User: Fold these one by one.
Assistant:
Number 1:
Amino acid sequence: MESGKNLVVDTSVSFSASKKIHPISSMCREFLLELFNSPNSLVMSDEIESEWRKRASKFSLKLLGAFKRRRKVKYINNVRGVHNLRNVIGETKDRSRVGPMLKDVHLIEAALVTDQIVVSCDEKVRDHFYSISHKSEYLRLLIWVNPTKPNEEPISWLKDGANILEEKKLSNWDIMKKSEVIQDFSDEKIRK
């Protein structure tokens, strides 16, 4: 079997992925199915799995069971406090960002002890972590993919091996945001 990457998938994805026809649901569902059919694996800690059990859709929970049966889940533990991220977050001047980052820091810690990949639909939290990425070399290296952003080409990225690409690093998210705005502007001009 081909060796794959280990991806931390936030509940924003597993909650949204369902059999509904809604575009967000469809994009998240397609991403999880592609992940399942790829050589890649899910990363689970007790905290991540607990979140999935509480918030994931029925579709995602069934798929989690299939991931487990195929041994495509990498279990990790004892990652709290890795790379001193909680201290970096605590020193953030914009106090409104601290709570949301601390709520999701376990995802970042899990990613950093595996293949440094987070899959999440939460753009606000992504922006919060981006805002402090200059303070942590580990955050700068983190890959962050949003399966609901077509300009990030998440399915193609997965099919191509979920490689560590400069444009997917958290430290380069400002470039991705600008390309999304340019794409939106171009799409708007085409519609007119």
Number 2:
Amino acid sequence: MQSVTEGGANDGYFAVAGNYGYESNGNMTTDPLKGTGVEHNYLNLPEQVQFGANDNQRYTYDAAGNKLVKVVDGSVSGNNTRLDYSGNFLYENGELKAIFTSAGRIIPFDNNGNIVYKFEYNLQDHFGNTQVVIHKGGSGLAEVIQERDYYPFGMEMSELSYEGLSG
């Protein structure tokens, strides 16, 4: 695909001028819609994604292709982060952010100096897509904190989806 022209309602795609760029392995290298450039490693995985002149994301993988590190650098220093992936553990700037399980994730948070773990459970459809995320609410009952509905072709039905505050 070199370009896309939209003639109808712009519900999910907004056409812009320009052509998509690809390298010899078929990996996209430029996306005019997002204004990005992508460099790939020898495993055909994205190694660097550039957004304009000063913003980029860099990725490091092991030899099997498992993501080890994601670094976000940009012109807004508050958005600069480093994510380290160590098995099922996710660290952000050296601090444990989540432990992923087959049923969902465990999120540590500080409760007046004590580290407390909140369990979030994913309810998935037959494709493995997460439809609903629940956790134990303040009353001790299950509480929906995120719900996603999708069209048959995969785009999210934003008018039917919900994301509450998880705190």
